[in-house]
Write a structure and sequence with these properties.
Chain lengths: 359, 282
């Protein structure tokens, strides 16, 4: 049985079941202001977990790709060196992860576990990760101004890559879909009931309404932008305009569920002890390509903007990873002070193309 | 399954510095070996043009070309002090330990060049990565036709690998041409940029069925490419190795990307034809 029905009052029992199975569970909460955030679930805060709320800016990516991660502990004594890899691989569940962020983690899987070299730190954590996806169905609370998963084809309901998927059918019932054997194993608990054809019809109707609740977005031009970027048809002038609006804060990468770049640094933690750590880095930042001695092959800000969008949108990289490095979450648009998040850049490319074709 | 799949790709292995040789100002050659002989044997299967990541714990890690040929007994790096990591390496003394991982990158496809003429054009410390191919080609002398080396440095004081230069000059199956941009009182050889050697009397650069290896500073690179194109080389016959800052060496950190390529795994060796299709300036 791949799908079941769950009463609204029992939804958080999934969190309890996971905790009983030894998972550290993270879930979405309201912050102190208007913010929302993923946080560890405790006995105290368990009742405050939110099902419908704006997707937190700080993506749950950080639970698989740690913002700062120790790679090695190195002891240097009397001329001897000992290097100890340090793995952090808790058994963890993310409850309430949205479909865009599911696509983000899938992209990270393709990137860190694909090709010749695998990232063992990522792999160890990923193996212990259980994902409970919540479909965005509430136009007021779930679907944001900048969301464009319908254009990026990642939502509102993820098609795959979750363990369980919850969808609010609106009348006190949720449909639960299992995406993996681990997810399906949960269905042995009596809170899960068998669904009927009426539930399936209801699911379809709810999803239909959700899809139509997105803002008629300029990112409907998304796939054309992909072609323009891939074929180098975006004029240098357009990149300069985009670059001129970049404040080089790196916020877009910070909130991006699909950005993968990192830097590595050694830090001394004792007289004979050093840690090698890695942390998120961003191609938006000027020092990203700077070499020893000061030479920087990619200096101009618009080159770096071009780089970011090429890396995310070009056919070449989509084929290389069989996954696009933009999932349509809209966070970059929400945080960018210069309004050059993905939706706005797609619009700038569209307008520039329209002008070129006029002349 | 590829052994790299189950290993920690970021884990460097302990190396011991054996001895240090001065090359030119700010450039030294560091002879080293892995503490574990099994690591040393595995590493020795590298190809010319590959590189390694060198760790100086507490300072960091940097990518370094491999100047030795796999046909040689010893492993070494030739390093100029430019930043904190290279300075930390320069501060080491024989017997000191550091760490190395690799080899990484594609390397030059030396087997694909069997039966061809090889033309090596190096400027300054661009000889470091090309040294590996030259020694390799000379060790497999019967596999290649003509082997020509054109090497230029700023001044006689900037010539590297003097012992190798003397061997090549003696002409064991190799046509060797040397130049300096600025001569001093002792210099009796050719003066001019490295490309000027192509027009030196008696020099005949083969073009048909030839591969040209070019490595050197950006200005030298641009001019030599033009000179070679003028001689009739097409862009697919010209190979070079690119440099970028790298944090991982295994295609993950993102720092070395140029257009469509991750220099660490797709390169560092590219033909000039490929370089032009990267979609970003080198």
């Amino acid at each position: 049985m791949r799908a079941c029905i769950l009463h609204r009052d029992d939804v958080l029992k999934i969190v309890d079941l996971l905790r009983q199975q030894g998972y550290e569970v993270v879930a979405p909460f309201f912050g102190r202001g208007r913010d929302t955030r993923f946080d560890n679930v405790t006995d105290e805060n368990r009742g405050q977990i939110q099902i419908h709320l704006p997707n937190p800016y700080h993506p749950p990516k950080r639970f698989v790709m740690l913002q700062i991660e120790r790679l090695f502990n190195i002891q240097q004594n009397n001329g001897q060196i000992q290097i100890e890899p340090t793995y952090r691989e808790p058994k963890r569940a993310i409850f309430g992860i949205r479909s865009c962020d599911i696509a983000g983690i899938w992209h990270l899987d393709r990137f860190f576990l694909g090709r010749e070299f695998r990232d063992i730190y990522y792999e160890k954590r990923r193996k212990n990760l259980f994902l409970v996806n919540v479909v965005c169905t509430d136009p007021e609370r779930d679907i944001g101004e900048e969301c464009f998963c319908v254009c990026a084809d990642t939502g509102p309901a993820a098609r795959d890559h979750f363990d369980l998927q919850l969808m609010d059918l609106g009348d006190g019932e949720f449909m639960v879909v299992a995406g993996t054997p681990a997810g399906e194993a949960m269905f042995t608990d009596p809170i899960f009931r068998k669904g009927t054809d009426a539930h399936i019809a209801k699911r379809r109707a709810v999803l239909d309404v959700a899809r139509k609740s997105f803002k008629p977005s300029t990112t409907s031009w998304f796939s054309a932008a992909v072609r323009y970027v891939s074929q180098g048809k975006v004029a240098e002038k357009t990149w300069e305009e985009i670059g001129n609006r970049c404040l080089e804060c790196g916020g877009c990468s910070y909130v991006c569920p699909a950005c993968t770049c990192f830097t590595v640094s050694d830090r001394r933690v004792g007289p004979d002890e050093v840690e090698r750590v890695r942390m998120w880095d961003a191609c938006a930042l000027g020092g990203f390509t700077r070499m020893a001695g000061g030479h920087n092959p990619r200096k101009a800000v618009h080159d770096r903007r071009n780089r970011r969008f090429f890396r995310k949108l070009s056919h070449y990289f989509i084929q290389r990873e069989l996954s696009m490095a933009c999932v349509g979450c809209g966070r970059c648009a929400a945080v960018c002070h210069g309004d050059i998040g993905m939706p706005s850049v797609v619009e700038m490319i569209r307008r520039a193309a329209a002008e070129t074709e006029k002349t | 399954m590829n052994p790299a799949a189950t290993e920690n790709a970021y884990l460097p292995k302990i190396a011991v510095l054996d001895r240090v040789v001065d090359e030119i100002a700010e450039v030294k050659t560091f002879y080293w070996r892995f503490e574990d002989p099994a690591e040393q044997a595995a590493f020795k299967k590298f190809r010319p043009g590959q590189f390694a990541q060198v760790s100086l714990f507490g300072t960091g890690e940097f990518p370094a070309s491999l100047p030795p040929s796999p046909t040689e007994a010893e492993t070494f790096f030739t390093i100029r002090t430019v930043g904190s990591c290279t300075a930390a390496l320069h501060a080491l003394k024989p017997g000191d330990k550091f760490a190395v991982r690799g080899p990484y990158g594609n390397g030059f496809p030396m087997e694909d060049y069997y039966g061809k003429d090889l033309v090596f054009v190096a400027g300054g410390i661009g000889l470091i990565p090309l040294r590996s191919c030259i020694i390799y080609a000379l060790a497999h002398r019967d596999k290649y036709k003509k082997i020509q080396i054109y090497y230029g440095a700023k001044s006689p004081k900037d010539l590297m690998y003097l012992q190798n230069l003397h061997e090549w000059e003696k002409g064991a199956g190799v046509e060797f041409n040397l130049t300096v941009d600025r001569a001093d009182a002792t210099w009796k050889g050719h003066v001019g940029v490295v490309g000027s050697l192509f027009k030196k009397p008696g020099v005949q650069v083969p073009v048909e069925n030839t591969v040209a290896f070019v490595c050197g500073p950006p200005v030298m690179f641009r001019f030599v490419i033009k000179d070679l194109q003028a001689l009739g080389f097409h862009d697919g016959q010209i190979v070079s190795t690119l440099e970028r800052y790298m944090k991982c060496g295994v295609g993950k950190c993102g720092h070395c990307c140029i257009g469509v390529a991750y220099v660490c795994v797709d390169g560092p060796v590219f033909t000039y034809e490929q370089i032009q299709k990267l979609g970003e300036d080198i």
